[in-house]
Structure formats: structure tokens, C-alpha cells
Please model this.
Amino acid sequence: MERKKFNGFLLLITISTALVFCLSSSEISSSRRQVKLGNENFIKNFPAELQNERLGLVINHTSVLPGGKSLIQSLLEKGHKVRAIFSPEHGFSGFTEGGKEILDSEHKGIKIFSLYGKTRKPTPKQIREIDAFVYDIQDVGTRFYTYITTLKYVLEAASKAKTPVYVMDRPNPAGGVIIEGPLLLPEYQSFIGAFPIPVRYGLTSGELAMMMKGEGWVPEEGALHVVKMEGWRRNYFWKDTGLPWIPPSPNMPTPETAIIYPGTGLFEAINLNEGRGTPSPFLQFGAPWLDPLSIIKSLSEKRSWGIELDSADYSPLSLPGKALHPLYENETCHGIRVRITEEEKFCSLRFAIALIKALKERHPDKISPSPRRLNLMFGNDLLVRFLKGGITYKRLMEEMEEEELIFQEKRKKYLLY
Model:
């Protein structure tokens, strides 16, 4: 097969056969039930204890009710007192490129305090102006996606001030069943990994908030209230919810991106372009030195991933607001494009690790990880040690599987659905 210039979806090479250990769902419901978000229930059944209280909203552009009206607009129209807004990475509008500092601003005369600027945690002065936090942000289900760290910091600040937090629950687009990855070690805690959970953890934001409280990852002081969804099931992916997709960040344009992100997001820490600077971030990846056909052949030999792959040449471009200077900007990358065909089978982290293994075998002189960054994202140093020849692939997978089982058991008491 010849390499082809990327032009939409190309002819696909199907991968088949059995997958190594994966904590995944056995079936997906064929029905498309409409899921009612926590924020809709919150507006409809507004808590009596919050009447006339001053609210601090932790929100962004995803904080929208299913009808299309923003949460803040709905609250203001009903006469509730919104005294402050707190915005995460990418800002209140969601248009700012990842990693860029966000400044404080205003919305309809209400102060917006950035939690991705000079401070990343609400300050005591800011909290004095409010009586309760309301958190309503769409997560993607990956540990190194920073919105859950912002949730942790809000819970910490609220606990210290003995201020209640109301979490509007939302679907996990990576599903509620598949668990992948090691538990984060304390020495690798950072803003892209703040507590000991797997890379792909299969919890809603509300469930994760409960786990933070229950496991002592945040202080116990200060009440936590999770406003549940209606109609969501653990084996649902986004297509099963009946809800419109609002990209949570500039490089998360589709629900499929959220499913693959726990795996191909790791490519940020090795010298692969992870699709930034293209219309399909994380669903395609490559490098000028990559031999995609040999990698596809290697991945196809023994496993069924629930995906289809194709080789595709592309050139990452500077995309202001998404990827200003992507790796290999304006260079021709020989790449691989992924199309997910069976979400319930696709273990994206295992796929990415298998691809890294294939890169190590076929391009040993080209692959060059950033050890510190990769350790922070993966949660320990096992993947770096594997790349350096310090441990075997088998040991890497065995240790990861053991920790997945530990988390699987620990999370049970926090499941709401």
C-alpha cells in the first residue's frame, strides 16, 4: 500500500483478534436514552438551603443545560445571586490554547477569577464573597486532563472555608466501565495528576469528588453535594446519551477524541506529533521518520482493538487557539489515523503502549521520550524504564493490571450509577 496524503477518511485497514487484559464492558445498550444532566435537575429542584445564598460558579463554556441555555443565565433569570465565576484551563470561553495563562475578567458585571493564572485555587478573599460553590464542567475521563485537578483544588479551598460544594454530575465520555493505567505515585503529583487514580478511571465528576472526600485526598470539612444525572448508565458512551457534544477544550473536538485521549495523549511526552495542528488531534499521529505500514502490521498481528487504522501523510499547521507551534510544524509527517469502531472494546491506553513498544522495536534510534513529562502523565516511571530497557513489556503490563484491580475494588463504594 502506498502512503497517501490525508484527505478525510481514507481506505481503512482492519485490525482483528484477541486483546490482552482489559477491564471493559461486555455489551453496550442499543437504546439511545436521553440523559438528564445534573445541572438540569439542579435548576428544576433548586435546593432550599441555597435560596438567597451567594453562589460562586466553577464553570466554562460547557456549563450548558440540554436546552442550550447556560447555567449562569438560567440562575440569573430565576433571581439567584451569582457573586463570582471561577474558570479552569482554557478559560471561561474555552477558546484559549492549552497551557496558556488565563487572566481574570468579567461576565455581565460578575467577576471571573481565573484558576489557571496567578492562582489555581480559590483564595480566602474570594471565598468570603460566596456562600456555596457550584461546579459544572464537562470532564473527559483522563487523569492528566486538568479540570479534575481544578475540582480538587476547589474542594480543598471550600473545605478550609467550610463552604459547601455542589457538583453537577455529567457523563464520562470515556465511559464508566473501562479502567486503564497505574495509580499515580506521590512523587509524580502535579497539576496534570493530583491524586492516585489510573489514567482512565471510569468515574463521573461527582463520583470522583466523592472519592476524593472518602479517601482523604481532600479535607473532610465542608459539605459535598452531588446532583445526580438521570438515565445515565455505566456502559454508556457519548453516542448513547442523546446529548449534543460541546468540545471541552480546543483539541477535544469530538467524543471519539475523548475515548482515545487517555492513550495517544501520552504522545505529547515523546517525539511524535499527536495530531495537534490538524483537524483530528489525538486520532492521528506521526513523525517525519515514522514507517506507518510496519507499525500498523505490528499492531494488527495478535490483537483486536475495536478500531480501524490507515496510513496517512499530513503536515501539522500552526492553528492559533489550538496549537500555535505544533511539533514538526509544516513538515510532512508519515502518520497513522484511527477510527474507533467498537468503543466498548477499545482500550486506548493499552493501544498507545503497544504502539510505543512497536516504535521501540522499529525505530530504536528515533524515539526520544521526555522522561519527566512522561512520568508525570503515566503516573510512575515504568513506561520510561521500559523504553530504556530497564523492565520488560510483560512486567510493565502486569504491574499496571494489578493496580487497575486495586482501583476497581476501591471505587465501588463511590459509584452512583
